[in-house]
TrEMBL record:
Taxonomy of the source species: Eukaryota, Metazoa, Chordata, Craniata, Vertebrata
Alphabetic keyword roster: Membrane, Transmembrane, Transmembrane helix
Subcellular location: Membrane
Gene Ontology cellular component annotations, sorted alphabetically: membrane
Chief localization: membrane
Species of provenance: Amphiprion ocellaris (Clown anemonefish)
Protein name as catalogued: G protein-coupled receptor 155b
Transmembrane helix in keyword set: yes
């Protein structure tokens, strides 16, 4: 595979940049469509989470939806695609790479768990942990993302999602199920088991495994087509899977992190590492090793290798939680891990997809692409911060500490996003220098403020001030980052770059280092300042920082302008201000609808006529009879008393 050496001018240095000679055929993935696809998928997941958190859908109803997804929609989807698979266009090296990777990770997790787990739960942990580390959310989450990235460039990659499904569903998962069955029979009071019994339970009672087998047989028996009589029926079930599965995934996330304990934390970290780190790296390396035929000399080899990496990053499937619930084993680790891996996978997939395109991109628009990424993330983060700040103000928590510091941090993050959005428009106007300088001042004054306020929140408990003194202290702290930017404007030399991170050249890099190191006096440096410090030091001490510097710049952009996501996740869904009132409002709307159903127009005609006749002809007499009866009873009671 031929490469061409070139250089890209970024931050005042010529950075070596190797581009593939075969990249002239066009882009290997449509990166612009990835962000909307992620929003679509995780938006549906968020709707499911809100529905479950607000008790719009109860736990029993969620189980019903889960049964529909796992026993009807998914088996139909798998059957359909097993029948329609086109084996003629398949690059088999990819299948063998995924097979070797999944088997390797499965065996590694299984053996290590059997070695270190306690005998009371050794087999169930080995089976479920190995399934957790190898079964990806291929269909509900993976397919829409692959469709967005490769539909216009490599549409044949879409069928690979279904081609690799039998690796887990037919080969590895049954082994994990068998280990769980062994654990169940070992715990039974009268253990009776046989190999045939285990195979029967694992294969025949699992509709997913069963329908994959039937689908592969039907592929050859029906000539790669579904009969017209069954086609519409199967399409209806299969098409219902995507949205229902994502919504169910959101439902299953409610309350799962509360089950996480310190004892299960280590196991969870190791499992997520195996799933989101080891799996994609090994998968990509195996494609590089095994794809040595005709395909290896073309640009398709690189694209296939990148696709293998992205496939490995797909999070754990929600069906693993169903398996754990079915066997009533390891629910805490599996469900918590599913939640964490799903949310971690979104930024990892976005970052990975963008970074994988760097070797294929023309060096010229790289800086512009960095600005576009910052702009896109700022918009979404801004929406999250508006919500979070509103929640903080309405709940009046800012009157207490440390929420006063937290509110200042939110405001700084808000100004960072607003400034980045303004910068994206002003930087294109060559004659608006004053606007650029003012926006830059607001942007980096606010960004430096986020560094400082993070450190101040760690120190508040050691300070003894009255509330008014706290306000004065906050005002003083707010001035520091803007004074630093003011000094930069006076001493720095402005450049012509559109990148806000190098608008004032070397002096800006040195000022960023000072702002980060000022937090070092507070002893908790967080991830965000560390990333920016690493980027600045890398630039200072390397004549040619290399392509990794470009990738680090991307991570810094995501961290700087995506702070609102973390703030929203921690403070945006206040239980007393958001969750409970929302739930009460829905209940009142539901009850009012039930009351409307009992209006005269909704009552049957016979019942309405009977009520009308009673009121018109019998009501007065009934009242008189009741009064007469009550007086008679009172009189008899008085006589008895006397």
């Amino acid at each position: 595979m031929e490469t061409a050496n070139s250089y890209v001018l970024i931050h005042g240095k010529n950075i070596s940049h190797n581009t593939l000679a075969g990249s002239a055929v066009g882009p290997h993935m449509s990166i612009d469509k990835l962000f909307p696809a992620l929003l679509e998928c995780f938006g549906i997941i968020l709707c499911g989470y809100i529905a479950g958190r607000a008790d719009i859908i109860t736990e029993s109803q969620a189980k019903g939806l889960g049964n529909f997804v796992s026993k009807f929609a998914l088996p139909a989807l798998l059957f359909k695609n097993m029948v329609l698979l086109d084996f003629g266009n398949v690059i088999w090296a990819f299948l063998w790479s995924v097979l070797v990777t999944k088997v390797t990770v499965f065996v590694l997790v299984c053996v290590l768990t059997l070695m270190v787990a306690s005998p009371e739960s050794r087999y169930s942990k080995a089976g479920l942990y190995a399934i957790f580390a190898t079964q990806s959310n291929d269909f509900a989450l993976g397919y829409p993302i692959v469709d967005a990235l490769y539909r216009s460039t490599y549409p044949e990659y879409l069928q690979y999602i279904y081609l690799v499904a039998p690796v887990s569903l037919m080969l590895l998962n049954p082994i994990g199920f068998a280990l769980c069955e062994v654990q169940r029979w070992r715990q039974a009071s009268h253990p009776q088991h046989s190999t045939a019994g285990i195979l029967g339970v694992v294969v025949l009672q699992n509709p997913i495994v069963f329908m994959v087998i039937v689908g592969i047989i039907s592929h050859f028996a029906l000539g790669q087509r579904i009969p017209a009589v069954l086609s519409e029926f199967i399409d209806g079930l299969a098409n219902s899977f995507g949205g229902a599965a994502l919504f169910y995934l959101g439902l299953t996330m409610v309350g799962q992190l509360r089950k996480l304990t310190r004892d299960t934390g280590v196991a969870l970290i190791l499992l997520i590492t195996a799933k989101l780190l080891i799996m994609p790296l090994v998968c990509k390396d195996m494609v590089d090793i095994l794809d040595v035929g005709v395909n290896s000399t073309s640009a398709n080899h690189t694209s296939l290798s990148n696709f293998a990496f992205l496939y490995g990053v797909f999070p754990t499937a929600p069906s693993v939680a169903i398996y754990a619930g079915h066997y009533n084993m390891e629910l805490e680790v599996v469900t918590s891990g599913m939640v964490i891996s799903t949310f971690l996978s979104a930024p990892i997939m976005y970052v990975s997809a963008w970074l994988l395109t760097i070797p294929l991109m023309d060096p010229t628009p790289l800086v512009t692409e960095l600005e576009n990424v910052s702009f896109n993330i700022s918009i979404v983060s801004l929406v999250a911060l508006v919500w979070t700040i509103a929640v903080m103000l309405l709940s009046r928590k800012f009157n207490r500490l440390p929420h006063l510091f937290v509110l200042n941090l939110f405001l700084a993050q808000f100004l960072v996003c607003v400034s980045m959005i303004l910068w994206n428009f002003l930087v294109k106007q060559e004659d608006n220098l004053v606007g650029k300088i003012l926006t830059f001042t607001l942007l980096y004054g606010s960004l430096y403020s986020t560094y400082i306020w993070t450190g101040q929140m760690a120190l508040y408990r050691y300070m003894q001030f009255k509330y008014v003194e706290w306000l004065e202290y906050c005002f003083c702290v707010c001035r520091v980052p803007f004074l630093m930017v003011g000094g930069l404007l006076i001493s720095g030399e402005r450049t012509e770059t559109i990148d806000s991170a190098f608008f004032y050249g070397r002096a800006q890099v040195e000022t960023t280092i000072r702002s980060v190191l000022s937090q070092q006096r507070n002893k908790i440096l967080t991830v965000l300042p560390c990333l920016n410090l690493s980027s600045c030091l890398w630039w200072l001490f390397n004549k040619d920082p290399g392509r990794l510097y470009l990738e680090l710049q991307f991570f810094c952009a995501v961290a700087n302008y995506g702070q609102g996501f973390l703030s929203f996740g921690i403070f945006g869904l206040d239980r007393h201000l958001i969750i409970l009132p929302f739930k009460k409002r829905l209940l009142s709307l539901w009850q009012s609808r039930e009351t409307e159903d009992l209006s005269p127009s909704a009552v049957p005609e016979e019942v309405r006529l009977t009520c009308t006749q009673f009121v018109r002809y019998h009501k007065d007499q009934c009242v008189q009879d009741i009064v007469h009866t009550r007086e008679s009873v009172n009189a008899s009671t008085g006589e008895s008393f006397l």
